[in-house]
Amino acid sequence: MKANVKWTGGVSFEGRADSGHTVVMDGAPESGGQNKGSRPMELVLIGMGGCTAYDVVHILRKSRQEITDCVAEIEARRAETDPKVFTNIHIHFVVTGKNLDEKKVQHAIELSATKYCSASIMLGKTARITHDFELIESE
């Protein structure tokens, strides 16, 4: 996997990886930015959320659960001093579907957290990561 990040002026950068998609990163106005894109650490959280949500959906589909939606709501805290690594991350999954088995959803989340999601396993080296979930019955 390769990526490049190009400075586009001020505190703005454009990132591109092998897939060819572009991500704009920028700072807040108080740091000299123009708020044209996400902050890099926000993208780290979004990436982790995408990684774990992908796993959960994939595992639930393989276990023949009728899942219609999955949202990972993430809250994180960072260290007060540099390097301001994530110290606590909480992921709340909202899983929607028909006749979902609570134990299978719990198991899918645990498998993602302990075996499959490389992003959350990596972030778990500096942060305490917790999970919970709620099930919503779809019509």
Automatic annotation (TrEMBL):
Record field: transmembrane: none
InterPro entries for the chain: KH_dom-like_a/b (IPR015946), OsmC/Ohr_fam (IPR003718), OsmC/Ohrsf (IPR036102)
A Pfam family reported for this protein in Swiss-Prot or TrEMBL: OsmC
Region entry Disordered, spans: 18-37
NCBIfam families, alphabetized: PRK10738.1
Name of the protein in its database record: Peroxiredoxin
